[in-house]
Amino acid sequence: MNTYCIEVEVSNCLIVPEAQKALFNRKEEDVAGWACYKTLYFDGNNEEEAKEKAIQYMQDEPNLQALTLNTPENPKRYRITSIIPWPYGDPLSPEEVTKNYAFNAVDEQGNVLTWMEASDPKKVKYKKIAKKKLFKGSEPIWNPVLCGHIASTCHLSYTESDRAILESLPEPIMHLHYLWTFECEVGGNGIECFVLEKCGHEIKGCYEALQAVGHKQLAEALGMGIALSLEPDEEGNISAEYVHDVEDLTWFNHFKGCSRYKELHEIDDAFDVYELTNNDLEKKIVAYIKANISDIASGS
To answer: pTM for the complete prediction?
Structure first.
């Protein structure tokens, strides 16, 4: 029995109206359907058995079913886009991976629709969400409602230049945007992938956002990750992508020497990063939303 890392694409998703309004800033007539992607881990005697388990799980997954309203005549489509053996220790459970969803709009050919141009920072303006949309009882709905509303405020290029766009938002909104990024990226791939692959503004923004909501453990873990990401390999090369894009590394260099560990993967294990990100961080975020509600939502 082997463990496999399996990426599943779910397409032709017809999303419930409330989620569609919250998640997307597109005209309905421009979109033929929606798609989402999840990386799951399943045991199997062979690849085919693991694939079958992954697709069956997604077909039954309650969070996805609650967000979508497909009919038997117009069902969702499931496709395995990649599968590889996973010899790296205990992976995330499917329930942890599928707790939250991020959908992509697709055209009639199934191509993901993306924004061609990033927002002009001078023209970005956050429009407060109505409290009646944000709250369910006394609790704000962080994901997907507020996450999607904030994401629809501006269009990003996913480069270092996005920092100027996000800094044009009110500070609580900027912090929440980075926290959503942190949840999506670190919740699935850990600190190691995050500090090696993401833009410098995302790493710095997420660290500052974690401090803003008072999650000291995750901020400390990320700080140690930054420290190790600056360490050169035996040939003197630094593999972290942000190092080659950020003009001034002064802020990052402050973390040098602060890690108690020698390898990045040790940080994820030592701090139980997946558990904290997927099951603990949201409590801090919700408290932060309530404390800054006047900047976030309007109405009664």
So the answer is: 0.66
